[in-house]
Amino acid sequence: MLYALMGLGLSLITGVLNIPNFAHGALFAVGAYFLFSAIHVVGNFWLALVLAPVGVALLGLAIEYAGIRPLYAAGHDYQLLFTFGLSLILGEGIIVVWGPIGFSQLPPSILRGGLDLGFIFYPKYRLFVMVMAGLLVLSTWLFLEKTRYGAIMRAGIENKEMVSLLGIDIHRLFTAAFALGAYLAGIAGALTAPIRGLSPSMGVDMLGIAFVVVALGGLGNLLGAIAAGLIIGVAQAVVALYWTEASVAVIFAVMAAILLVRPQGLFGIR
Amino acid sequence: MALLQTETLTKAFGALTAVNGVTLEVQAGTLHSIIGPNGAGKTTLFNLLTGQFPPTSGRIVFDGRDITGTPAHRIAHLGLARSFQRTNVFPALSLLDNAWIAAFARGRSWRGLVWRRSDGYAEVAERARAALADVGLADKADQPAREISHGEQRQLELAIALAAAPRVLLLDEPAAGLSPDEMQKMVALVRGLKGRYTIVLIEHKMDIIMGVSDRVSVMHFGSLIAEGTPAEIQRNPEVRRAYLGGMVAE
Amino acid sequence: MSRAWLAVLAAVVVLPLTVRHAIATEIWIFAIFGLGLNLLLGYTGLLSFGQSTFFGSAAYVAGYLLKQYAINVFVALAIGVVVGAVSAALVGYLCVQRSGLYFIMLTFALNQMFYFIAYQWTTVTGGEDGMPGIGRPALLGVDFRNPLAYYVFVAALFLLSLWIMKRIVESPLGKILQAIRENDVRAEAVGYDVPSFKLLAFIIGGGFSGLAGVLYAMLFGIVPLEAIGFVFSGNVVFATLIGGSGSLYGPIIGSFVFIWLSESVSVVWERWPLLLGVAFVIVVLFFRGGCVEAWARFWSWRERRRALEGIAQ
Q1: A19 three-class SS
Q2: Which of B78, B90, B127 to mutate to test binding with chain C, by most C CBs within 10 Å of its CB?
Q3: pTM of the complete model
Q4: I need a surface site. Which of A135, B55, C16, C219 has the fewest CB within 10 A?
């Protein structure tokens, strides 16, 4: 479910803005660290969970405004270099601010321990994350499908000229899409922190997976990203039961295999 | 004998049938025009002939050989060369290199592809230069394609097709977007090529067609509605109703 | 011999006199790596963000054989080229059908796959600690453990690589790849099987990357995990772009600037990748077009000034 969240955010950014966002993983990591610090400042997990992703979204807003906007006409090579440079800055910035050693973050006390589901003993917090991520994906989906802004964003993926002809400020649309994508990455990171802990490399590890999800789901295909995120998550969980070491590599192997059979991705249109 | 023929060729894009049961014969050495209003399916027909995409049904036979479904790059090797309606050149390359690329593709052998210096292929360079000379661009051979005028780019478009030493030349509205002056030049150019090549010409401007064509086919909503000599076509009542009426008004 | 070649030769001679041998050697290795990428990026217009896949795979395989069996240096290099080319063929086969963002993302994702394999397969690769203990066996009585001897060896291989790449880009293939970059639809229409040509470019680029990878492993005596990581892929893209991807010699200049930059900032601060990231961002925002273009702009500015002065007089 977290993969779906990451994939959805990235798919939104790549789809609407048509740029390769290599800073997406870094935004994920920043989300986790923001949560960590916010908890220390406000002393409340729930409030921190609200604040952290908003912080990431604001960061995304600034990045888009200052850095990406001048680059729309510049070609993918320079866009890539920019977001890649950004991911280095954010990744190293995390080390500078929080140090190279990771942290562990406990879930709030009410979600500690496990829940007996009869057939399996499952940690409460993981259940919470699943529900949370599910709700987020659902609400993002509803936002895109049912609201006016969502419709504009989807139109931005399909046909940018059309959108600007309709008199909508395309730059504001881009900024909004980037901020929303960043928000989703940030909240995914924040939710992950109590499960896997925090480490400076967490962003890069997630970045590859997010790209796999988008590649499989189809660029800018939001439903595809959700489905692909679920498939990848399940595949990884299953493999992890039998062969833990390979569980990450298997994600990519699954992608390679699917692309061999269906070069356009699972739900690819373009 | 027909050099190029199609049998009930059909292409459907979803619910839209762009080319509908077209049966066409192009005789060797002739200039065969296909006319019809915009959206009649002429360019789609070309895309089928050159293998840009496969037909939904029907057959394409070139020189007695069934080429239906053959990929574009193979069809080019067989000697079917096309020009595009929208200028479609290699902008950063010199005019000579634009033609050279097409000439090399049709070369007898690709020996030395990776290793021989590209200026070591005398006959390829010669054919490329000849193609540029044919369209009157020989003196600009070393300029990059993006720097020449729109009219000249249309001429280059033609030169790229010629450089491939084609057996059939498919020209997709070579005069599209040209000024009256430039158009006269282009018509003279096409007239000059007549007889040297088997030519299939797409056009929607009647006046250009009638002077140069040996045969004319009329396409309307994806289907052929008439075929004959230019004079026959001008007399054909159905054509007048479906097409000429509109053109005269224009 | 052209002026560019004279400049390169001069650099080969002068470089070891001015910087540490290891750094000088690394510059040429990175330049070979950049040459391989530039065939894709500059000539074919394919932005591969996974070049370290081929670099790292070759370094691991040849490094392992060097370590375990102390194979001949040339055999190791040949193996590296083959491993680089084969891994590029595998990756390329999956990627060349796609274009634009998809292509970039796929090269990157497959890079990550190789990275995680190397990361997890600790018995061979050493995982995060890298694969140490790679020697430089002597060849014909020349002891490559001497840094200067190894520098000369690498520089010679670089010149050979440059010559080979020059031949390739001046061959029909070079022209065809440029035509594909300019307009792949038309290239297909005049008779070139575009995906096959892209794959060929990938394989050649992979061979160069593989060569660079083995030389790198022998230079430092270790294959660090980073050698197959995506940061490495990004670095070579950066180096090629700042050098100027439009020219054969661009990646060489880029390699100079990049290695010099990273060496000097790494002395300043332990967290030097941050500064590097800042450098990336600055270059992208303010110096697009790279050194070659900046140089050309400088020259045209000077010419214009001279012309103006001429008029004034």
Answers
A1: coil
A2: B90
A3: 0.85
A4: A135
Q: Please tell me which of the candidates C115, C120, C281 has its beta carbon nearest to residue A245.
A: C120
- Domain CATH for C27: 1.10.3470
Could you give the number of structural domains in chain C?
1
Closest CA to C153 of C4, C8, C19, C28: C28
Q: Is B223 helix (H, G, I), strand (E, B) or coil?
A: strand
The residue with tokens 């014909």 is: C140
- Of B72, B68, B46, nearest to B171 (Cα)? B46
Q: How many CB atoms lie within 10 A of CB B157?
A: 26
CA atoms of C218 and C72, how far apart (whole Å): 12
Closest CA to B219 of B246, B242, B187: B242
Whether A179 is covered by a domain: the verdict is yes
- Which one-letter amino acid corresponds to residue C202? F
Torsion of CA A128, A134, A137, A142, to 10 degrees: -120
pLDDT of A44 above 80: no
Calpha distance A260→C105 (Å, rounded): 16
The closest of B183, B180, B133 to B156, measured between CA atoms, is B133
ipTM, interface predicted TM-score of the complex: 0.86
Amino acid (1-letter code) at residue C39: L
Q: Report the residue of B110, B118, B124 to disrupt the C interface, i.e. the one with the largest count of C CBs within 10 Å.
A: B118
**Is A177 a member of any domain?**
yes
Residue A63 falls inside a structural domain: yes
| HSE-up (13 A, CA, CB side) for residue C311 | 5
Domain annotation covers residue C248:
yes
Structural domain span for residue C90: 3-271
C-alpha R_g of chain C: 20
Return the amino acid letter for B246.
G
